[in-house]
Each structure stands twice: as C-alpha cells, then as structure tokens.
Design goal:
37% of the residues lie in helices and 24% in strands. The chain has a seven-stranded mixed β-sheet. Helix 5 packs parallel to helix 7.
Length: 257
Amino acid sequence: MAWSATQYLKFEDERSRPARDLLAALPDIAVGHAYDLGCGPGNSTALVKQRFPDAAVTGVDLDDDMLAEARRRMPDTEFLQADLAGWRPAKGADLIFSNATFQWLPDHLSLLAALAGSLADGGVLAVQMPDNLGEPTHLLMEETALDEPFRESFLRNSARRTPLPGPERYYEALTAAGCRVDIFHIVYHHPLSGPAAIVEWVKGTGLRPYLDRVPQALRADFLAGYERRIAAAYPAMADGKVLLRFPRLFIVAARAG
C-alpha cells in the first residue's frame, strides 16, 4: 500500500497525541541512540528528538512519500528506508520507539520480542498501536465492503486487519525477552467537524486497504456509502461536532540492567 503524508497529516495534532503520551510514560533513561520505527512523516520523530535533544535519532520507514516529508521536516536527522519485518537495529539500542505501526505487521509479537533483545541494558522498547477494530469506523468498512457492486473485490482478499492479541500475550513475550513490562490502554475521544471528517481521518490509515481493492471507478460510491453509515453511527452533538472514540494500546518494556 502506498501512503500519503499529506492525507496522514490532516490530523497531525490528534495523531501525535498518542506519541506524546507514550513518551510521557517512559522511565527516566539516558538515551544515546533512539530509533523511531514506522516514523511516517516525522511527526513522532520530532517529538522523540525534543524529549532527547542530545541523542542520535534515526527514523525508519518503508514508504517513499512518508520518508520524503520526514526528511523535509528534519533535514539534519537520519532516516532509513527499510521493511520492519526484517530490519533490526545495532545491538545496544537505548530506545526503540514506535507510534501506530506494528499493527500492520504480521506476527508482530515475535518482531517486538526480537527488538527487545537488541536493547542495551536498561534500554526501552516503547510501542503504541490502535486497538479499534471493534469500533464503528472499522466495522462499517466491512459492512460497506459487502455491498454490491463492491463485494466481488473482497471475496478472495479480505482487507480487514488482524485484531491485536490480548495484553497478556505481549506481557509474556516481552518478559521472556528479559524486560519489565508496563501495558495500558488509553481511549481518546476526538471532537471532529462531522462524519466527513471521520472519513478523511480513516482515509489516511485504516480505510486505505479497502480503497486499494475497490476499482477506481467505484471508489466515490464506496466512500459515499461508508459516509452514510458513519453519519448514522456518530450523531452530531449540540455544537455540531461528532466524537470519534479511538482506543489505543501502549507497551513500555524496559530491559533489565
């Protein structure tokens, strides 16, 4: 899937808030080298650099458009293009940070355990992932995909992401890797201008696999059908805005020193 930095950054402040909250949950650590995995357009990388101004920070992403924006934003920062399914940092990383990336990767439990093993003593793996597949935003993507004439595009190739494992699975995998583990959820409630804004939000992330499978000539109809469902599921409040409920899972794993 090709990403769009422009689409993603339409809600930069809201998308950056979990990164700020993840940084706030870190223990007091000395960081010589930090990695931001799935750095996207660099919004989270900038926050890592702000928290650890003396650290060497490296952003890692696979997408060309995201990396181009990240390099434009932070020209003095190193950004690498790599597939995180096979990428590993040099041994002794002080901080491996990731905001809303690993939910896209198959078998990410094993990947996170391997990354934890590359931490320096006292180093930290800090990860945030959306845990929202049970929310109307995502359930209604599936419902719309069953409509004609879109159904044929999904019969042999589902666009639905695999749900996250339970917190106990992360705890067991990361404690086995020698870490002290803190796991928690935060549920955000983002006030947005209306149903169309919710559609614009998910067009930058969760809706992309669905739109990629729908023929170009049918995408406007798919979006219209999806937005009608969103409007019914997210009624306007007194000020005309809608509240987007967004649960996220946070993991902070510190390697024992």
